[in-house]
Design goal:
mainly alpha
Length: 256
């Protein structure tokens, strides 16, 4: 937790706008260092106080969540679906350590909501980490919905593929087999299938009798980029840095 907390506080410090903000920030850090029951009570009151800045609620929820205090749940779930990927990642880290049985249900609802796909990357990764009963069905449903032409959310689909491989549930085989046909997902899908005991040659797409002709004509078999899962992204891993989760698309974010 130490590294993640330092990353959070360094980021928040850059958001401070006044001497009053700095005083409140230093007080939060003092409560975190004290780690006492009285300090956690004060942090919990910050989560519901009127007109508290977002950064203050984020720090309070992170500290409480990592301590297993379930009063942080609602704030962390809101941040998990926030428009800023860095805040989503911080919330996911705390939720994974919160130990609240509601977490998997909330993450599954966010991951499978087609209106919030732009912000689904961290809910998907959280589901894989939680290994909850909801994890596999939610990842399969999300992946199958994204295996369509022209979807811009290939990083979310890739996270589903990687998560399903890590979870090791053979219910994922049909969805992973379908993902092999998409060049940006193919390498990860083959690796996940191998973890499930399904070898790549058993699921490789068949060119059929017109395969050579399609290649010659520049069709789907020619290895060129034909759509959102083009060759340029073949085998791509998770997006680095702040790009994680920053998919195109709209969203309301956290209400103020």
């Amino acid at each position: 937790m130490e590294d993640e907390f330092h990353e959070l506080t360094d980021r928040v410090r850059a958001e401070l706008r006044s001497p009053q903000d700095l005083i409140a920030y230093e007080r939060l850090l003092g409560l975190a260092r004290k780690n006492s029951p009285a300090g956690r009570e004060e942090l919990a009151r910050m989560l519901v106080a009127v007109e508290r800045p977002l950064w203050a609620r984020e720090i309070a929820a992170f500290i409480l969540g990592c301590a297993g205090d379930k009063r942080a749940f609602e704030t962390l779930v809101l941040l998990l679906n926030y428009r800023d990927p860095v805040r989503c990642a911080t919330a996911a880290y705390a939720l994974a350590r919160l130990g609240d049985p509601r977490t998997a249900r909330a993450a599954a609802a966010l991951a499978t909501n087609p209106l919030r796909t732009a912000y689904a990357l961290h809910p998907v990764r959280l589901l894989a980490e939680l290994r909850a009963p909801q994890s596999v069905p939610a990842l399969i449903a999300t992946l199958e919905r994204l295996l369509t032409p022209h979807t811009p959310y290939w990083r979310v689909a890739l996270a589903c593929v990687e998560g399903l491989g890590a979870l090791g549930d053979r219910r994922a085989v049909p969805a992973l087999t379908a993902a092999v046909a998409h060049p940006r997902l193919a390498a990860a899908a083959a690796a996940s299938l191998a973890r499930l005991g399904v070898h790549e040659d058993a699921v490789a797409p068949d060119d059929g009798p017109e395969g050579d002709g399609a290649k010659a004509a520049g069709g789907p078999g020619d290895g060129q980029d034909h759509g959102p899962y083009g060759r340029a992204g073949r085998g791509a891993g998770r997006a680095p840095g702040a790009e994680r989760g920053a998919e195109p698309g709209g969203g309301e974010g956290l209400p103020h």
